[in-house]
Amino acid sequence: MFGRVHEWSKSHVKLMDALRVAPLAGLAVLMAWPYAAAPAAGPPGMRIGVGGYLVLSAALLAPLLWQRRRPLAAFAGVALVCFGQWLLGVDLVPANLSVLMALWSVACTRSFGWAFAAWLVAELGVFLVIVRWEQVTISTFFSGSIFVVTVWLTGLYASTRRRYLEGLEERAVRAEHERDQQARMAAAAERARIARELHDVVAHNVSVIVVQADGAGYAIDSDPEQARQAVRAISRTGREALAEMRRLVGVLRESEADATDYTPQPGLAQLAELVDGAGVPARLRVSGEACELPEGQQLVVYRIVQEALTNALKHGGPGVRALVELVYGGTDLVVRVTDDGRGASAPRSPDGHGLIGMRERVAMYGGAVSAEPRRGGGFEVLARLPVPVTRAA
Asked: How far, in whole angstroms, is CA 73 from its chain's centroid?
């Protein structure tokens, strides 16, 4: 609620200035007739009538309508009116409190140098008033200036508080921008890693095609020359496609070592080894009739299990156990990784993007994935991937 009020006040500056002046203006109007009816406190000429009182009050209050936008000009205007009032010997009126309001605005919104200068002017005004209507003593000057000092210090505190809050706001905005930038960088890095892995899988398949085509070129006996030319054309086209793919996707390589690394990507055959070396007690359970999965989908399953076991190790707490299940059924493969760790009470990692990577991997093959705490404790990662209908022999 306070935030909405603050935003509204920033968009209605003129109205807020008028509302700030309204209480003092109301007091000045209420005191008009009592002021005119009261006996003069000094020599003749110091008391003015109701008309002069209202004009003087209006002159003192008018500059305050610009105190937020132009605090220095507002303070200078009020100070000049007060000085003219002192020169004419006019008695003090309630609207003279506008000096304190203008002083507070300068101390709150301007630098310390301007605030100090405004304080000196206000103290000079106190001294001139005492010289005109009181006997100048240390006690009378102290009594008059204590209000000025209090208002001035309050304005300085408000200025310090405002700048502190602005600094916090700026740091929060910068931190939010940095967090978003890091999230985008992490997502881009994850997509680049997925692109490299897909590149390796496709490159492997194309390499196999090239090798088979080369072998077929020497194995065909009927019309060997024409067959040899056709197979060689297939081999040449495959090699050109492989070179083009490497040239286009090779920009994603992070180092020279990556560019020359042709180690086969992990798949279902390495899943048992992954579960055994996960760092947490884990079991692998496979049910249903197994399908022959493409290498890309095998890599997706491997990475999902790897990420889920890593999360169980990092966030599951001491003594956590995990269960990895592969369920073949119909045209879907269900990958479920559950643990008995802390679940919803586990601390969230502000820079974790594993779930984003899993979703991107599974979405490439038309599947879906979810990761959430289980009822009763623990965590569950559930992925569903469409698989070919053809069964393994």
From this structure: 38
Residue with tokens 């992990």, as numbered in its chain = 266
Q: What is the pLDDT of residues 109-146, one digit of tens each?
A: 888 889 899 889 988 888 888 877 666 677 777 777 88
pLDDT tens figures, 286-329: 998 877 888 888 888 988 888 888 888 777 777 888 999 999 88
DSSP conformational letter for 331: T
* b (16+ CB within 10 A) / e for 118-133: bbebbbebbeebbeee
What is the rounded CA–CA span in Å between residue 252 and residue 248?
9
Tokens standing for residue 231: 């197979």
Read off the pTM: 0.42
Asked if 336 and 327 touch (Cβ cutoff 8 Å), the reply is yes
Cα–Cα distance for residue pair 227/246, rounded to 1 Å = 28
Cβ atoms within 10 Å of 3's Cβ, excluding its own: 7
Return the number of other C-beta atoms located less than 10 Å from residue 287's C-beta. Answer: 11
> Taking a C-beta distance cutoff of 8 angstroms, is the pair 63, 89 a contact?
no
